[in-house]
Amino acid sequence: MPGGPGGVAGPQGAAGAIPGGPGGVAGPQGAAGAIPGGPGGVAGPQGAAGAIPGGPGGVAGPQGAAGAIPGGPGGVAGPGGASGCLPGVGCAGVPAP
Q: What DSSP designation does 12 have?
């Protein structure tokens, strides 16, 4: 469709986009997508990651997860325990039992 959405698909996956809008790809190894000036992310067999520009972001996978809000709290968690920080307050960690 001229000026409208475009895309391709085949045995290895698919890709598509709306002009000036969201776009993405997907295939056997996972998927990725983004909205221009907005959130974006990826996901696959090893985990996922995503972020909102100027806002929160994070990653997660088989070994744990991490995330943060710019200027705000952040932390990590995994098989060994969890830790996090609050700006202006301090940080704490909790080992796994």
A: T
What is the chain's Cα-based Rg? 18
| Geometric angle at alpha carbon 83, from 75 and 60, rounded to 5° | 45
What's the half-sphere exposure (Cβ side, CA atoms, 13 Å) at 64?
12
Beta strand ranges found along 11-89 (DSSP E): 13-17, 23-27, 30-34, 40-44, 47-51, 57-61, 64-68, 74-78, 81-86
CA distance linking residue 66 with residue 70, whole number of Å? 13
The pLDDT tens digits of the residues spanning 20-64 come to 999 999 999 999 999 999 999 999 999 999 999 999 999 999 999
Residue 46 to residues 60, 70, 81, 97, Cα–Cα distance (Å)? 9, 25, 20, 25
Contact 33, 25 (CB under 8 A): yes
Residue given tokens 């200027």 in the structure block: 71
